[in-house]
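Example S7 (structure tokens).
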């Protein structure tokens, strides 16, 4: 079979992952397509057809099995994030203007930047952040009970991760409403729009520029008058003389906000919906919150998989999953498929907060690009679900989540809810 025949056959038999129409299918249909792809002997090649999407037309191989995604994630010298982990790859002018994001870096450059950032997350800072998360979660649920919103997303789901990161970074309160609006605008540039046009990661350049201007001003201020916040720590040189430039800080802040806020808000929303659809799991969690919340958080992330995929570029010849990959080829690491792999997860479509072990890839597959904010996300989800499940006022969804069609993230646009009745 020729490559052309293979692609044609896969469009008919498995749907076409390069076609925007695939990402408008109901999620169960997409998961079924991934399951069929996992049955193939080797990864399948998909080629965007001219005129179907505003993307680069580069073919890519879909890595859909847990073992293949894990291997690619942990072999960065072969499967590189540079020149870009999203599609299309960041333009040269965007890198020059905004700085290169950590998700698009490899090797020593990535390691140096990650080291600078990781060193600033001291035990004292993390302990203070955990206390702050608990207070914020309590206040936000208090406000929900008082205000009785009809949509969960603009209330606690979005506000908790935003407020946590802004507090951590030391962003003044007057800047936060504007930053929240810019995050929404930038995040809406990722995936497939409802009117049929493919949304492109990174097209929210105006929003990113505004966020970076805020950070550049704050960095200058913190260099002159440092405070007890992460921005001050990041812009000051440490004992090795390492610190972030204003542009590096801006790139990191953009990543932290768009990635950290969006992924956590979506995981929280999916968690509320999953627990409501599975009342036996919700009651089990409520019966002994401390015992079950750790497993519940991991299962929510596995089941929902907030980030659907990232891309990698093959740097050197490598055998994986029944195929020899060649330099220059593109691969898609489909976490949404890997987290439903029957070879790893018993009854993978089942939502089970007691699932153990649960080696999901919702935070990446390990290696140098494992999510820096995984610990923070777990703390936020734990604190908020504690407040939601232990109050006397019952919070219930009144409709299905309004999912945003996307080939990048499992984004929830809206989640209708009601408050009450009061539990006696």
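Recovered sequence:
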């Amino acid at each position: 079979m020729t490559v052309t025949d293979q692609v044609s056959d896969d469009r008919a038999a498995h749907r076409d992952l390069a076609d925007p129409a695939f990402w408008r299918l109901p999620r169960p249909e997409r998961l079924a397509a991934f399951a069929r792809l996992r049955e193939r002997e080797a990864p399948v090649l998909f080629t965007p057809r001219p005129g179907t999407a505003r993307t680069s037309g580069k073919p890519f191989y879909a890595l859909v099995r847990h073992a293949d995604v894990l291997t690619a994630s942990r072999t960065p010298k072969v499967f590189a994030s540079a020149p870009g982990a999203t599609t299309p790859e960041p333009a040269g002018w965007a890198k020059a203007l905004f700085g290169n994001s950590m998700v698009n870096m490899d090797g020593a450059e990535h390691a140096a930047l990650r080291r600078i950032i990781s060193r600033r997350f001291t035990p004292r800072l993390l302990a203070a952040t955990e206390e702050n998360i608990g207070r914020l979660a309590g206040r936000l649920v208090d406000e929900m009970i008082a205000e009785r919103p009809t949509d969960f997303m603009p209330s606690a789901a979005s506000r908790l991760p935003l407020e946590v990161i802004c507090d951590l970074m030391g962003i003044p309160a007057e800047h936060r409403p504007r930053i929240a609006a810019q995050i929404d605008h930038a995040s809406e540039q990722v995936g497939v729009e409802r009117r049929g046009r493919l949304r492109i990661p990174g097209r929210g350049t105006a929003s990113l520029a505004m966020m970076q201007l805020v950070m550049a001003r704050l960095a200058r201020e913190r260099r002159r008058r440092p405070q007890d916040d992460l921005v001050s720590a990041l812009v000051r040189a440490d004992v090795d003389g390492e610190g972030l430039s204003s542009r590096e800080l801006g790139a990191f802040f953009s990543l932290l906000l768009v990635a950290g806020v969006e992924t956590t808000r979506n995981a929280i929303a999916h968690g509320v919906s999953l627990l409501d659809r599975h009342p036996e799991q919700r009651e089990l969690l409520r019966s002994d919150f401390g015992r079950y919340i750790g497993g519940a958080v991991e299962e929510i992330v596995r089941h929902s998989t907030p980030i659907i995929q990232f891309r990698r570029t093959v740097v050197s010849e490598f055998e994986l999953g029944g195929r020899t990959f060649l330099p220059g080829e593109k691969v898609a690491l489909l976490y949404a498929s890997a987290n439903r792999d029957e070879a790893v997860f018993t009854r993978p479509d089942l939502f089970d907060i007691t699932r153990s072990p649960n080696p999901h890839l919702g935070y990446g597959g390990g290696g140098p690009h494992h999510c820096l904010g995984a610990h923070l996300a777990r703390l936020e989800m734990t604190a908020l679900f504690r407040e939601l499940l232990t109050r006397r006022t019952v919070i219930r969804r009144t409709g299905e989540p309004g999912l945003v069609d996307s080939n990048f993230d499992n984004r929830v646009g809206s989640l209708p809810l009601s408050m009450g009745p009061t539990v006696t």
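Notes on this example. The first helix runs from residue 3 to 14.
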